[in-house]
Amino acid sequence: MQNLILDIQNIVKQYANHTALDHVSLAIPEGKIFGLLGPNGAGKTSLIRIINQITAPDAGQIFFHNEPLAAKHIGKIGYLPEERGLYKKMKVGEQMIYLAQLKGLSRNDARKRLIYWFDKFDVGSWWNKKIEDLSKGMQQKVQFIATILHEPELIILDEPFSGFDPVNAQVIQEEILALNKKGSTIIYSTHRMETVEEICDNIALINKSKKVLDGSVKAIKDAYDKQSYHIQYANLQETNSLIGENSLFTVQVDDTMNQQIQIKLQPEVRLNEVLAFLMTKVEILQVKKVIPSINDIFIEKVTATDIA
After folding, report:
1. Single pTM value for the model
2. Of 108, 142, 176, 260, which residue has the fewest beta carbons closer than 10 angstroms?
3. What region, left, alpha or beta, does residue 22 occupy, with left being phi > 0 and alpha being psi -120 to 50 degrees?
4. Would you list the domain boundaries of the chain?
């Protein structure tokens, strides 16, 4: 059984007549990258603010390493909010030292670590610049450094790639993976489904204040496997002989002009049976399984719960 860094139990949060979180429970494994997904207004930010103790739940409880979440845990968490919170008139270096001291670092230790990170990101010349003089992407780099400078056990990233060009987004993604490899647990909230597939071990999907899906990325994709295959072929003599009725598969996409089809296997049918059948009619050039993406699953699940 995996150790949990966060055990979130039946969290409820209401604002006036709006329920932001409706008995949401999540288990965040230690040392993993956990994707927290959901459309705008689903309740993700409300949950993140409760974990950071910015607000309190109306009901439910959160445990940090099996202890009730408390003020003493704040120093073990790093938080990069979607709405950036830097002081625009302060100089970068002094602001970073100030924020690090709030997380428990001494001024001397903060300065040493900042020199390392500023050198790593090649931003040493920014030390005496004001935040307002930096571009949005530059401010993002500074805020990312502030988030991880105290080497937190749990790092919460809310849309961390916002404002970055592709090159710098890749740099930050590599740093996220490196921090995770060193032992940090990461909660990653985003709308960028492609990066979820690349870096997340587990995900949870919240929609309309409720958890509607959670588990490992592999287990979820396996659960949504529709047994569909894309097949490219050649030398077809009679089109109907390939796409006509049979007991092995149904045709989902028929592109006879380009000599390719997408099929879905009937229950209990193996792919080898289908290929043996097709090989009596055509030359098989390529067979590729149609694997559902996290983006496809996200849309399907959100659409289903919206209708419900």
Report:
1. 0.86
2. 108
3. beta
4. 4-222, 227-289
Tally of CB atoms within 10 A around 220: 19
> What's the confidence (pLDDT) of residue 306?
67
pLDDT number for residue 308: 55
Q: What is the dotted CATH code of the domain comprising 227-289?
A: 3.30.70.100
Superfamily of domain 4-222: P-loop containing nucleotide triphosphate hydrolases (3.40.50.300)
